[in-house]
Write a structure and sequence with these properties.
Number of strands: 13
Order of helices and strands: EHHEHEHEHEEEEEEHEHEHEH
Structural class: alpha/beta
CATH topology of the largest domain: Rossmann fold
Shape: globular
Bound molecules: succinic acid
Strand content: 15-25%
Number of helices: 9
Number of domains: 2
Distance between the termini: 35 Å
Radius of gyration: 20 Å
Length: 315
Amino acid sequence: MHPQNIVILGTGGTIAGRAANVSDNIGYTAAQVGVEELLAAIPTLAQAGTVLTEQVAQVDSKDMSFAVWAKLAARVSHYLAQPDVQGIVITHGTDTLEETAFFLQALLAPAKPVVLTCAMRPATALAPDGPQNLLDAVAVARHAGAQGVVAVCAGVVHGAADVQKAHTYRLDPFTSGDAGPIGYVEEGRLRQLRSWPQAQAGRVQAAAGTIASLASTAVPRVEVLMNHAGAGGAIVQALQAQGVQGLVVAGTGNGSLHHELEAALLKAQAAGIKVVRASRCTAGRVLPTPADAIPDSDGLSPVKARVQLILQLLA
Ligand code: SIN
């Protein structure tokens, strides 16, 4: 291998999707086209330096599992440790991309770039968005000084902690909320607006040994609940009876909870279940008060707070 290698890991998604009809952008099957074939559609990528590929998984990301995350973390960790690898690109579905990005950042806090990319249209579309996204992702992975886990889609670079899918259909479905994007990719060049993701105090990071053992580890059961009009405590009691170890509640507004749901969560917490309060709002964060009996998610969305809680329970 030459210095400055980029490794592209395939995991599936719409970027690897196939439809029977070129004008069908929703009636396709995700995760059909291999990562090698995706690259073949972008001849300029091969001209831009050495690119290695590996098919780590082939899933529609709605079906993403801890088992795939464990395998992906092991392969990312393996390639990051190679001195001649500059960065890693991961092709992924958009639906749970933010969870995988956060999982990898929280676990690895890499000093090299790990760039997730995706598409909203299948590879067979009349005008697929995947090839340009992949090209942009490689440009970010090659950018001098790039580090941490980021997502690149529609020319926008998002940090792992902030990225959130906010639109069901548009080619630019992600937002970084209040934080804003890290930058934009324009004609293969990064226009950087703010700093790369860093290791964060209080977030779990793993040693290589821990990553290797993830695949054989029993994953703690952590569920996400939502506060809503008429929310009650029965769901908490049912989950408690099933042995749930952690609960993330997507509260209303600043993490507020229906009094019945709150009472059940406090009981569960007193019984040893870890409970975290996030917000179902797509922007902003739960601002804590000294009176809070249930800890807040430290700015994490409900699904990312779930990942964080799983990692904490594993640690
Ligand atoms: C998926 O998340 O795998 C399917 C949807 C998408 O990639 O946009």
